[in-house]
Amino acid sequence: MLVEALIAVPLVGAAVVAVAPNEYAERLALGVSAVPLVGSLYMYLAFDGSGNALLGGDVAYETFFEWLTLGPYAVNYHVGLDGISLPLVVMTTVLTTLSILSAWTPIDDRQRQFYGLMLFMEAALVGVFAALDFLLWFVFWEAVLVPMYFLIGVWGGPRRKYAAIKFFVYTNIASLVMFIGFFALVFGLGDAVGSTGLPEIAQALRAGQLGALGLPGTGAAIPADVLALSAFVAMFVGFAVKVPVVPFHTWLPDAHVEAPTPASVMLAGVLLKMGTYALLRFNFTMLPEQAATLAVPIAAVAVVSVIYGALLALAQSDLKRIVAYSSVSSMGYVILGLVAYSYYGVGGATFQMIAHGLISGLLFMTVGVFYNATHTRMVGDMSGLADRMPVTASVFVAGAFAYMGLPLMAGFAAELFIFLGAFRSTVLPAAPLFTAAAMFGIVVVAGYLLWAMQRSLFGPFRLETDYDVGRAPVHDVAAIVTLVGLIVLLGTAPELLYDMMSDATVDVVEMGGELP
Amino acid sequence: MVLSSVPAEYYLLLSAAVFCTGLFGILTRENALMFLMSVELMLNAANINLVAFSFYWGTLTGQVFTLFTMALAAAEVAIGIGIILVLYRNFDDVDVTGPTTLRW
Amino acid sequence: MSRHWLLLAPAGAFLAAALALFVIDAVDRDTTNPTVLSAVATAGGVVAAVASAVLLLSNAVATPAELFGGQLVVDGMSLIFTFIFGSVTALVSLASLDYTRGLPFRAEYYLLVTLAATGMSLMASANSLAVVFVALELSSLPSYALVAYLKHNRGSVEAALKYFLVGALSSSILLYGISLVYAATGSLLFADVASAAGEAAATYPGVLGVGILLVLGGVAFKTASVPFHFWAPAAYEGAPAPVAAFLSSASKAAGFVVAFRVFVVAFPIDAVANPSTYAVDWVLAFTVLAVLTMTVGNFAAATQEEVKRMLAYSSIGHAGYVLIGLAALTGVGGVDAESTALGASMLHLLVYGFMNTGAFLFIALGEYWELGRTFEAYNGLAEDAPVACLAMTVFMFSLAGLPVGGGFLSKYFLVVGAVGAGVWWLGAVLAVNSALSLFYYSRVVKAMWIQPPAEDREIDGYPPALYAAIVTAALVTVLLLPGLAVFDGAAFDAAAGLL
Amino acid sequence: MVTVAGIYAYAPAIAALPLASFLVALFAGRWLPKEGALAGILATGGSLVLSAVTLVELVLTGEGYDERLYTFVAPAETFDLGFGVLIDPLSAAMLVIVSLIAFLVHVFSLGYMNDEGEPGLPRYYAGLGLFSFSMLAFVFASNLLMAFVFFELVGLCSWLLIGHWYREAAPPSAAKKAFLVTRFGDYFFLVGLVGVLATFGTARFAGEGGFPAGPTPVSALIHAATMVAAGVFLLARMYGFYALLPTVLAIIAFTGGFTALFAASMAVVKDEIKQVLAYSTISQYGYMMLALGAGGYVAAFFHLTTHAVFKALLFLGAGSVIIAMHHEEDMWLMGGLKEEMRVTYLTFVAGSLALAGIFPFAGFWSKDEVLFETLVHGLGANPLLLGGYLLGLSAVFVTGFYTLRMVMLTFHGDPRTDAAADPHGVGWNVKFPLAVLGVLATVGGYLNPAPLAKLTGAEVDFLHRYLDGPASEELLTSAHHYGDLTHEWAGYTAGSVAGGETATMLGGAGLSLALALAGAGTAFVLYRGPDPDRHTEALGDLRTVLVSNYYQDEYQVWLAEGLTLRTAIAADTFDQGVIDGAVDAVSSVSLFSGDRLRRLQTGVVTNYAALIALSVLLGLAAFAVVGGWL
Fold first, then answer.
1. Are B102 and D603 within 8 A, CB to CB?
2. Which of C61-65, D209-213, D322-326, D397-401 has the highest mean pLDDT?
3. Torsion angle, CA of D11/D12/D18/D19, rounded to 10 degrees?
4. Is residue B82 part of a domain?
5. Touching check for A213 and chain C: CB below 8 Å?
6. Distance between CA atoms of C300 and D35, rounded to whole angstroms?
7. pLDDT digits (tens, 9 = 90+) for C199-252
8. Domain assignment of residue A299, yes or no
9. pLDDT tens for each residue of B56-100
10. In this structure, how many other beta carbons lie within 10 angstroms of the beta carbon of residue D241?
11. Which residues in chain B have their CB less than 8 angstroms from residue D606's CB?
12. pLDDT (tens digit, 9 = 90+) per residue, A363-372?
């Protein structure tokens, strides 16, 4: 029942906050969000699951009962957590609380609606990571769009309407493509599975029970392998938009630049992870052979995302755009780790989800703090901020170096694992070359972050906008410092999460071991 | 009997002819009343079929159904006339192509 | 025997309500309290809905019950649809209390609504082409009058004219089609037509084929499917908003129930469209219709300036979605996939009955407040009427297929059915259209929540009945997300029973 | 894996102490006396003592130490990702050197920073503490991963320290540039690290778990990659790994020789005293690489040691001069300081002579051994080494020249400015480090006077014996083990010119000494007298090339802005125009077609009827054809 509590508390809380008076909304929301935070931490400590939830591992905090019938299929309410989803849930609750904290300063109208939506989104996100039935998962998956649409559209920047609708429609059509691909698989399985439960489907697929799918008119049918391959592609494209992978990434910078800071934090920190999480759960867990067949193109896409994303970041002068594009770059590493299909590859990809979630969240928050003080994000408009906001500046430095993969910070551990896994991948031809190419990202990322810092933080103080810049409010500083602490903690002791992650991902790779 | 000597196809042709006449009227006439009459023609084309084939199949279904359709046709006309009346009140005309405010 | 009479309770409720209104109005037409009229009509709808729900869930019609020598049949499908008609009628009648306040001929208004509802419930049970035609007319004629209810409003009158003329044309096409089918098969009872269809298709393919196509045309008019949809935008835009709600939800559903029964039962596809006895492949026809309807409806809706007209087009688009249920009867996926698709269509109509009615009733609220028709007219309305706007947001997103309401599930069920039937590309078309629909639905939401409010707007009062109707619709829409579990089994069984 | 209880258990503290001082300075610095300097001095002093004790222990017991301290993540697959301490002769000695210099730098900073009243002292000492921590941990790192981790931290620290005065424009930019360049190297380092781990499953430096042989393509990639980045110490640390590939060794050697000359040539024309020293450092690293490449493991470490001492001395001496000159660095504005600052002058000269390689100062012995090793192996095995030898030899002359030029300009002649006329005095905290280092620079050479050993047969080549000592045996890091490796894989054998080994040795020694003296002499002649004039103009265009460092900066700037930034901007344009353009195009196209579609609704009911009739007819026609009616 703990998972239900984790979903229900923010949901009810959202309703309460939405009708609360504006002046109390922020503190109320913080209080509400603290409950799932504590809950998820408790769940992390008391976690007793093992193995992969989809591949017959024993699932923690599981709930199951029948919900719908969809023609021949039973749709069940089935939730539970394993070593992959639990860390993501914890990250969700942490980031939600912190971004609510970081919203206190910038959000000054319709607070109750804002915080209500934030909590609603938290509930949906927890659902996404916890759901073990496809249709249930899809409900949460789509439900996330609604609050984010409003967060961008109502509290966003000048081009917020364009950004909001772009994000909305783009990701929506993507999930429809994915939906079709997935159900093609389900029907291809025929009577092998009687439900839309993810574990059942995953195990049936890995057991090779996929059959042909009939075509109307002619008596012809799509043979199993073609079906599997096309379904894989459909799902990959569907999720690639969410990740985002080049060339489906263009909604991201717009959304990020226009979104208010807390929304950006959630978007970069958690929403992008939905895509990689889904890739891991669906494409790479259910269709390993296809993953191996398409290894080269996928790896190519990953490397392009890394380098191209970093180059784009290099060309920007808006701090938020820089961080946004570098997210594209970092997500490329995750794809590389997944496609490597090796122990450290997949495990590292999972770890990178968390690491990047925290780090990008940190950078967006810090940029937000600067923006609150300076009302500009243009690198050219300011310099020497470190003179006026030393603490915030040092936090930004910490975040930037974490992003560059400085050892003993979370990013380094993640990237090291991914590179190790990718380098020795048995599935990916010419793995060392792909890896070496992707690694070059660490140079470019250092380039633009150092450049941005030198221009905006250091040198003599100068500001185009006439605001008197003082130290940031305590709660903002508290939020970002907490994140730095977490990043260093995970960087020095990746064991804290990597144990359960590798325990859950190793089953995925098992089969990857002896792949064609 | 006379009817039995007439092949069924003829009735089909006849009804088709009537139907097309009605359709032609609908497509060409702008006066609402003419439009209404054309519709009546089309309905009656259907009636011809029903009656003829009721005889052809030797069942009464068709003929009975024809009575219903005539009644309904009358009702339809009643409604139609009503609408045409209000049309005339609002637009001072019964030209069906006249009112085109609701478009695109 | 008594059981059979009980099975007609839904239709009976409508009829009773109609007669009651008739009597009340006859007794004294001057001093009648409008609340009573509205209450009677609403009660009729509620009773019908409840009765059909009870019958449906109590599994009273595990085996379809035929009445009047097989002229009528009561089965799962008919009950699901009478439930839809009942709920829509109830909502509309309730909302009309405020909407028609101060207008003449209120008794006739409710009378027409209930009579049309009666006709629809007969359509749901019609088991013979004759009954189909009679019932269809019984539901159409009052609708014409209802559209023209605001008889001093040029829009209303023009809408009525177009609706009537196209309707008359279509009904004559339908009738002619029926006559041809009769000519080819010698019967009007679905069962007999079905048994004779195979031979007829062999002997007079042309006659039967043309007949079937014309019947299809007649039905397509009722469901506002492209290219028989031309009346719909005009009628929905010109008609009083509650009437538009009634037509776009209930009347459309009625058209579909007829389509389902006529084509699935009377013209079995393997009889009329197998290589040896080929008259016409109506599945193919419906496939074309579905694609056209979806695309035209959504794309035309995307560029509208007026919310009401946008809704009109969007309701055409939804007709296209539902048509997938018929287009998916390809025999590929077996009865499983086909019942999935057909059941999904029914479920979608069910949910649609609430969310679309609710949306049009929100427009009714707008007309009540005389806000104006364009999107801009609703700018920042959320500040003045948050509850109504929240409800409208639910309707819009649920229509767009986001998981705030049952529309999400039913729409995706349709995709599942399409994929299962091997016409996955229909699902893809739906995907594209649904993404586009998300764009134009969110324009309303954007106007209400994001745009700055228009100055010099004062809201005169919050009409309780209208609000009650809207909130109810919204609540049901939301509850149908988890609560679709109540109906889904019945729907898929009904579909399977039909096939 | 060797484990010794007792003193080695405290080895981690050598690094931990400065880490503590880092934390103290960072969080409590501003409330402490001297703002964290004392904490730093205590910590590094502690490290110095500890490492000295460790060294003694090592020498006495003759046992090494290789202990895993911390597991990064459990080795579920074959990798072992962990941190550990490796104490063998190499690291033990290096620990002493590093902690000594760290200690002295801290002391010196008291004079250089505190007394000058610089801002942000806690930040400075925190950086210094972190730097010492990273450096020491890097030294006793037991595997490549750990080495990389702390190498990176060192990079971070240099970024922090270079950019210390962040309120001015120049330092942050310099810091950025420095970090980017190292980052570029780190990339190859990382490729190498990942390659080593992924190929061999482990990256331990010592013991049986060390790098197995086998020049697979991958390990070739790794060689190439690590070579770019790895500093001299890392080269020595991984010597067993490089020893496996002769070509790599030869290339290292040649690059070393070239670097020696290349950097030295730039030092000739510099006017800022610190710049001269900086380029001479690069040049001296060249010598060490030359030695390693030539199989002179001991020689390399010897030179590393002596150089660490006298270069530290020179930098601190320069610092003291700069203090005296009120932060003026241009040597042309100095002159005649020798009277005013005795201690600085004497120690500085000692350091300079050591740098120039003048007998009997430390530099002479080490540099001589480097050249000797190169020569013999060049004669015996690989001619490419001879090339390296010649380059190194010619660098000796240049070194002698610029060193003395520096001394002359700074201390001799007449004061050329008022600042030089009455320099600002420096305190004990500056003089003390200088004194310590000065002594070492003078006598340091007797650590390993190989020539004496050879001539007299007396066992005075202490360093060689030390590095070859039993402690390194089991760890497979001993000098002769490496000797065997190079012999076995690279076929290195000692050769000699006519007259046998001794003659070769003496000849080489004499030659290099002569060249050094020649260089020094030239400089003395050119720049003596009260007011020396600039002779660099005589070089003509060559001077411009040298002054602008062979246009390296221009080249790097072009690489950064000309190439990368242009590409980035092009990519951005492409992204906005093509990719995003496509996305927007889809929406606008569909809206346009939607607008067209709604025109279907003409509003004229007759058209509707016509369209309906038409489509019915079309349907009929279509099915008539398909169904074959009629």
1. yes
2. D397-401
3. 180
4. yes
5. yes
6. 73
7. 888 888 889 999 999 999 999 999 999 889 999 999 999 999 999 999 999 999
8. yes
9. 898 899 999 999 999 999 999 999 999 999 999 999 988 888 888
10. 26
11. 26-27, 30, 96-97
12. 999 999 999 9
- Taking contacts as CB-CB distances below 8 angstroms, the residues of chain C near A69 are 488-489, 492
Residue with token string 């001296």: D284
* DSSP state string for D112-148: IIITTT-S-HHHHHHHHHHHHHHHHHHHTBSBHHHHH
What is the complex's ipTM, to 2 decimals?
Answer: 0.90
Task: Identify the CATH number of the domain in which residue B36 sits.
Answer: 1.10.287.3510
d(CA A360, CA A252): 13
State the pLDDT at residue D167.
Answer: 87
Contact (CB, 8 A) for D336 and D408: no
β-bridge mates for residue B31, sequence order: B95
* Cβ count near A105 (within 10 Å): 18
- Cβ pair A476, A395 in contact under 8 A: no
Report strand pairing: A73-81 vs A60-70.
antiparallel
Tokens of C241: 């908003």
Q: Which residue of C has its CA nearest to A19?
A: C386
Number of domains in chain B: 1
Q: Do C182 and B102 touch (CB under 8 A)?
A: no
- Kindly write down the DSSP assignment for every residue of A305-365, as one continuous string: HHHHHHHHHHH--BHHHHHHHHHHHHHHHHHHHHHHTSHHHHHHHHHHHHHHHHHHHHHHH
Domain span including residue B25: 8-96
C412 contacts chain A (CB < 8 A): yes
Residue A514 lies in a domain: yes
Contact assignment for D583 to A250 by CB distance below 8 Å: yes
Ramachandran class of C72: left when φ > 0, alpha when ψ lies in -120 to 50, beta otherwise: beta
- By the CB < 8 Å criterion, does A184 face chain D? no
Residue D228: what pLDDT?
Answer: 53
Residues 6+ apart with CB under 8 A from C101: C34
Q: What is the spatial distance between Cα A31 and Cα A18, in angstroms, rounded to a whole number? A: 14
Contact C238 B22 (CB under 8 A): no
Determine, for residues C422 and A216 on separate chains, whether the beta-carbon distance falls below 8 Å.
yes
D327 with D421: CB under 8 angstroms?
no
Q: How far is CA D495 from the centre of its chain?
A: 32
Tokens 């910490």 sit at which residue? A398
The tally of domains found in chain A comes to 1
Domain-located, residue B2: no
Residue D64: partners with Cβ closer than 8 Å, 6 or more residues away: D2, D4, D58, D86, D87, D88, D89, D206, D471, D472, D474, D475, D477
For residues D492 and D381, the answer to whether their CB atoms sit within 8 Å is: yes
Per-residue tokens: C411: 């729409």
Say whether C141 and B79 touch across the interface (CB within 8 A). Answer: yes
Chain A residue nearest residue D579, CA to CA: A247
Does residue A512 register a pLDDT over 50?
no
The one-letter code for the residue type at A509 is V
Structure-block tokens of residue A105 = 């300063």
Give the pLDDT confidence of C33-91 residue by residue, as tens digits: 889 999 999 999 999 999 999 999 888 888 888 888 889 999 999 999 999 999 999 99
The model carries a pTM of 0.92
Q: What is the pLDDT of residues A381-391, one digit of tens each?
A: 888 899 899 99
DSSP string, C109-172: HHHHHHHHHHHHHHHHHB-BHHHHHHHHHHHHHHHHHHHTTSTT-HHHHHHHHHHHHHHHHHHH
Q: Which two tokens stand for residue D383?
A: 């001619």
Token pair in block for residue D500: 């046998």
Greatest Cα pair distance, chain B, in angstroms, is 57
The overall average pLDDT reported for chain D is: 83
Asked if A192 and C429 touch (Cβ cutoff 8 Å), the reply is no
What is the per-residue pLDDT for C3?
A: 61
CA–CA separation, D88 and D93 (whole Å): 8
Domain that holds residue A464: 294-516
Chain D positions touching C296 (Cβ under 8 A) are 597, 600
